């Protein structure tokens, strides 16, 4: 419904006891780095073989680099031949970090840096904005929203950063011809002059729009603005995040278009019809959207309705929920829509902006759209019409054991025929023998108590529940798919996670509820006849019960939809212990690709940033960051030098380690 799902518990330090020491490749002392309190450290330059001039593509002025969410840079100064020489150019510590041990909730910092206006802009989970010199990290200005630092809708203080707009013909001497926007958890959208950091007085009320004024039905929590708006011309396209699994009747899903200059509301998109809004909620847009300005279309990834794991209040079709829906940019009217999960009782939110790509299939050029999903599907359609590029078939799916009252499941679900699913979906994942031995057969016993008849096995009240694989934590998360338009290669990171879900009738739930962690454990679904429990499938040591790998990086040839290469990505790590590289790591955040033939990504538990060959998947470079880089990287050029920027903020969903580091890399100077 809102964000990533918890997968952290399985990396218990007991995994590295003496009995399992043979499985550990190396033990390293955890390196702690004290936040610098908004200070930049600049690395000493060495030599740079050649400095390319600034050219088109030097900026990374939106969350995904461009409105089509390709996460692609045409820069090639850094390439496969020299990326091994990449060095830290500078780093910056915001000071805005919390591990939850003090008076503040923990922080989750997933902000992609924005390079525009010859400045690097970054928003923090304390809802401050920094404007930095892109070559040194020196602070040009900073702004504090003084937002309430409370976990109102999320288990942590979260942000994915800022957005940038500039007038088509900026007027010299006039304020706010260029604007930086940041939203807050309490639903306030701030507009700041990009040159000075002062609030834009003409925007909303003295520089602030209160989005919560639109929260008029089932307003149990604020419409949290954790994803920066998408800027398309003079439009700000803005969704919101809510509170997972808490209520059956919740704020109904809405997407807003605001005027970028004034903050005035232009149109509103409702994913639920008027009758559904009375009994349900959410089906919101909590992640980024993508835009094709030439077609005048906004492509919207819509989440599932509430309550997430029981659909008795919506027996009829809810066609826009768990969909990709194309809207007219000027009016918000639906142009076409494709629903990827019918009657979604698995919390299979469409959680990433679809990637727009022009591809050649069978000699025919196609304006395509690829939508990744939690199930490990990659749906490919014509972005003008929504029609299949490769056939998408309706296939029969499991119908449950009848234990859940009032449920009316869909008999079929859509399956793409190409590309093939990134995850195995037809059979129960194989028990990992090492975990089973360490747990004295605990994993085998758990598997025997879990219902599973393939993907779309619905929740149950019986036994330990239903095994969920692919689950709402795994598959492809909000980082989405990157695309190289020159080679027509798509790149995506995928996590292999097994969870299990059980429903409890209301009285049984009240007796069983023992609380929840970061988006796992018990949740009430208040107003529905069933509460729920969602757990990661581990043994008593915290070891995953399913076989590795736990995360992979996959490249696809988009001429054919076939896999070019796939490999484990990252290293599973906690408390200084590193697992074998062949196991890979669960990931949060996504990749960026460049014309230099490179894939840059953080995303893994071991808090490293890496570069891979786009052609072969070979790892070419890595470096250690302060915390897991759960944000997409940014690639930009400034004064002839190419830079790659990562935010190392951490997320307890994969590891109990947080940071406040913005770290930027470049080739050595001449």
What's the topology here?
Elements: E1 26-27, E2 39-42, E3 72-73, E4 87-93, E5 107-109, E6 114-116, E7 119-123, E8 128-132, E9 139-144, E10 157-159, E11 163-166, E12 178-183, E13 188-193, E14 208-210, E15 230-232, E16 235-238, E17 254-259, E18 265-270, H1 274-279, E19 290-292, E20 297-301, E21 323-328, E22 334-339, E23 355-361, E24 364-372, E25 378-382, E26 392-396, E27 412-416, H2 433-438, H3 442-449, E28 450-451, E29 465-468, E30 482-484, E31 489-495, E32 499-505, H4 506-512, E33 521-523, E34 530-536, E35 551-557, E36 562-568, E37 573-574, E38 577-578, E39 592-594, E40 598-601, E41 608-613, E42 619-624, E43 634-638, E44 641-648, E45 661-666
Parallel strand pairs: 3-39, 5-10, 28-29
Antiparallel strand pairs: 1-38, 2-4, 4-45, 6-7, 7-8, 8-9, 11-12, 12-13, 13-14, 15-16, 16-17, 17-18, 19-20, 20-21, 21-22, 23-24, 24-25, 26-27, 29-32, 30-31, 31-35, 32-34, 33-34, 35-36, 37-38, 39-40, 40-41, 41-42, 43-44, 44-45
Query: Strand sequence of the main sheet, in spatial order?
Result: 2-4-45-44-43
End-to-end gap: 50 Å
Tell me the name of the CATH class: Mainly Beta
The percent of residues in helical segments reads: under 10%
Low-confidence stretches: 9-36, 44-55
Number of helices: 4
Rounded Rg: 23 Å
**Which word captures the global form?**
globular
Largest sheet: 5 strands, antiparallel
Please name the CATH topology.
Methanol Dehydrogenase, Chain A
SS strand fraction:
25-35%
Estimate the mean pLDDT confidence: 91
Classified in CATH, the superfamily is Quinoprotein alcohol dehydrogenase-like superfamily
Second CATH tier, the architecture: 8 Propeller
């Amino acid at each position: 419904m809102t964000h990533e799902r918890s997968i952290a518990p399985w990396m218990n330090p007991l995994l590295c006891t003496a009995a399992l020491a043979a499985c550990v490749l190396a033990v390293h002392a955890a390196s702690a780095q004290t936040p610098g309190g908004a200070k930049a450290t600049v690395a000493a330059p060495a030599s740079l073989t050649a400095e390319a001039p600034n050219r088109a593509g030097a900026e990374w002025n939106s969350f995904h680099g461009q409105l089509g969410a390709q996460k692609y840079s045409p820069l090639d100064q850094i390439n496969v031949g020299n990326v091994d020489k990449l060095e830290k150019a500078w780093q910056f510590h915001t000071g805005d970090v919390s591990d939850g041990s003090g008076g503040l909730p923990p922080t989750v910092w997933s902000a992609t840096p924005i390079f525009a206006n010859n400045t690097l802009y970054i928003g923090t989970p304390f809802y401050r904005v920094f404007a930095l010199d892109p070559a040194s990290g020196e602070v040009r200005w900073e702004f504090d929203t003084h937002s309430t630092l409370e976990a109102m809708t999320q288990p942590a203080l979260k942000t994915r950063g800022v957005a940038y707009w500039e007038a088509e013909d900026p007027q010299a001497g006039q304020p706010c011809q260029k604007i930086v926007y940041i939203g807050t958890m309490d639903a306030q959208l701030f507009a700041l002059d990009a040159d000075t950091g002062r609030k834009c007085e003409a925007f909303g009320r003295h520089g602030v729009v209160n989005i919560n004024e639109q929260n008029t039905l089932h307003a149990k929590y604020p419409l949290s603005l954790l994803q920066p708006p998408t800027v398309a011309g003079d439009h700000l396209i803005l969704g919101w995040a809510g509170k997972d699994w808490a209520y059956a009747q919740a704020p109904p899903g809405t997407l807003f278009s605001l005027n970028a200059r004034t903050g005035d509301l232009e149109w509103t998109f409702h994913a639920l019809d008027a009758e559904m809004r009375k009994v349900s909620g959410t089906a919101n847009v909590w992640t980024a959207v993508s835009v094709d300005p030439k077609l005048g279309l906004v492509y919207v990834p819509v989440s599932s309705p509430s309550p997430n794991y029981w659909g008795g209040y919506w027996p009829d079709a809810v066609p826009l929920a768990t969909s990709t829906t194309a809207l007219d940019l000027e009016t918000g009217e639906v142009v076409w829509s494709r629903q990827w999960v019918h009657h979604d009782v698995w919390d299979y939110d469409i959680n990433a902006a679809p990637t727009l790509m022009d591809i050649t299939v069978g000699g025919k050029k196609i304006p395509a759209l690829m939508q990744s999903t939690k199930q490990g599907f990659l749906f490919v359609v014509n972005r003008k019409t929504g029609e299949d590029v490769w056939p998408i078939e309706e296939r029969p799916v499991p119908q449950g054991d009848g234990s859940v009252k009032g449920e009316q499941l869909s008999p079929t679900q859509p399956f793409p025929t190409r590309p093939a699913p990134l995850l195995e979906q037809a059979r129960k994942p194989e028990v990992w023998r090492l975990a089973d031995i360490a747990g004295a057969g605990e994993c085998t016993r758990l598997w025997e108590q879990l219902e599973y008849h393939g993907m779309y096995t619905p929740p149950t009240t019986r036994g330990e529940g239903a095994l969920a694989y692919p689950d709402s934590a795994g598959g492809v998360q909000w980082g989405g798919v990157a695309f190289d338009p020159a080679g027509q290669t798509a790149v995506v990171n995928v996590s292999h996670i097994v969870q299990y879900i059980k429903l409890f009738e209301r009285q049984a739930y009240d007796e069983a509820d023992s609380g929840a962690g970061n988006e796992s454990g018990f949740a009430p679904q208040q107003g529905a006849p069933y509460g729920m429990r969602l757990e990661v499938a581990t043994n008593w040591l915290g070891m995953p019960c399913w076989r590795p790998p736990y995360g992979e990086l996959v490249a696809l040839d988009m001429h054919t939809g076939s896999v070019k290469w796939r490999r484990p990505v990252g290293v599973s790590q906690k408390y200084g212990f590193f697992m074998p590289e062949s196991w890979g790591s669960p990931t949060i955040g996504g990749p960026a690709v460049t014309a230099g033939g490179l894939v840059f990504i953080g995303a893994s538990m071991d808090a490293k940033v890496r570069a891979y060959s786009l052609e072969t998947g070979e790892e070419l470079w890595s470096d250690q960051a302060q915390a897991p880089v759960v944000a997409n990287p940014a690639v930009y050029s400034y004064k002839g030098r190419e830079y790659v920027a990562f935010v190392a903020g951490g997320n307890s969903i994969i590891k109990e380690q947080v940071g406040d580091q913005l770290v930027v890399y470049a080739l050595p100077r001449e």
